[in-house]
Amino acid sequence: MRHSHPTSEDLQALIDAQMPLEGPLLPILHAIQEAYGHVPEAALPLIAETLNLTQAEVHGVMSFYHDFRKAPAGRHVVKICRAEACQSMGAGALSDAVLEKLGIGWGGTTADGRVTVEAVYCLGLCACAPAAMIGDRLIGRADAARIDAELEGAA
């Protein structure tokens, strides 16, 4: 993942590389996000023009798929399951506690850029609800103290 601010030329090269694909919009968005950690606002008019779409259409697709970010995520991404099994086992209280401690809302990133919290709708740990994920580490029977400890231990 690149961390610099992309130029129009950089973005256009990523867009052009996906053009041979059928239905290139999603692959273009994925390629840009993989390269920069998010899809910068500057990419939307370039994508729209290249694909002969409106910027509103590109924005609509981006906002429909929750994995696309408009801004870089924090160094640590915490995903808390919001599906029924986890909700019934206290995921609401868990997420409230985590978000309150970090001082952010869903999808938000702490001011220091350290942590982003996202909602997901099933991590496959229904029997160990509530479930969370930090980076690529799954946490069953998650509670606020455990998530806090995991984040404290992360650089």
Automatic annotation (TrEMBL):
[2Fe-2S] cluster binds at C81, C86, C122, C126. Its cofactor is [2Fe-2S] cluster. InterPro entries: NADP_DH_HndA-like, NuoE-like, NuoE_N, Thioredoxin-like_sf. GO terms for molecular function: 2 iron, 2 sulfur cluster binding; metal ion binding; oxidoreductase activity. Binds 1 [2Fe-2S] cluster. Keywords: 2Fe-2S, Iron, Iron-sulfur, Metal-binding. PROSITE patterns: COMPLEX1_24K. SUPFAM superfamilies: Thioredoxin-like. Pfam families: 2Fe-2S_thioredx. Belongs to the complex I 24 kDa subunit family. This is ATP synthase subunit E.
